[in-house]
Amino acid sequence: MTNNMLPYIILYLVNIFIAAVSQVLLKKAALKKYPNFIAEYLNPLVIMAYGLFFGTTLLGVLAYKGIPISLGMVLECTSYLYVTFFGVIIFKEKINRQKIIALFLIITGVLIFTLMPF
Q1: How high is the pLDDT of residue 1?
Q2: Exposed, middle or buried by CB within 10 Å (0-12, 13-18, 19+), for 48?
Q3: Closest to 75 measured CA to CA, from 86, 85, 65, 64
Q4: What's the Cα-to-Cα distance from 41 to each of 45, 94, 105, 112, rounded to whole Å?
Q5: Is 58 helix (H, G, I), strand (E, B) or coil?
């Protein structure tokens, strides 16, 4: 990793975080009851979530101007961290020992790959 890649890496990590936020919005929308089929898809949570997804596409394109695609795919694994965090905090999901070990392995793998010279 070179120093000129750092802003693009940070941009891509922000991109992944925003994508995780949009997934949370979609899950919150899915848990609600709606009066009809149209209201399920044309409500503020769903519209905002898809707007964020569109924004992440643009951010991803911008980030890939400064990082190799192989690094982007490794950084994408950090989404598991965000989703687990949101699941525990927002949806009160339980985290077990296997998930903790898996998250540790993901973090270790991302760090090893990111710190390797290209």
Answers
A1: 65
A2: middle
A3: 64
A4: 9, 29, 37, 41
A5: helix
Q: Is 90 helix (H, G, I), strand (E, B) or coil?
A: coil
CA 53 to chain centre: 10
| 118 band by pLDDT with thresholds 50, 70 and 90 | low
> Per residue in 6-36, is it b (16+ CB within 10 Å) or e — as a string?
eebbebbbebbbbbbbbbbbbbebeeeeeee
Spell out the residues 6+ positions from residue 118 whose beta carbon is closer than 8 angstroms to its own: 1, 2, 68
Note the pTM of the prediction, 2 decimals: 0.85
Task: Say how many CA atoms lie within 13 Å of 45 toward its Cβ.
Answer: 15
pLDDT digits (tens, 9 = 90+) for 24-55: 999 999 999 999 999 999 999 999 999 999 99
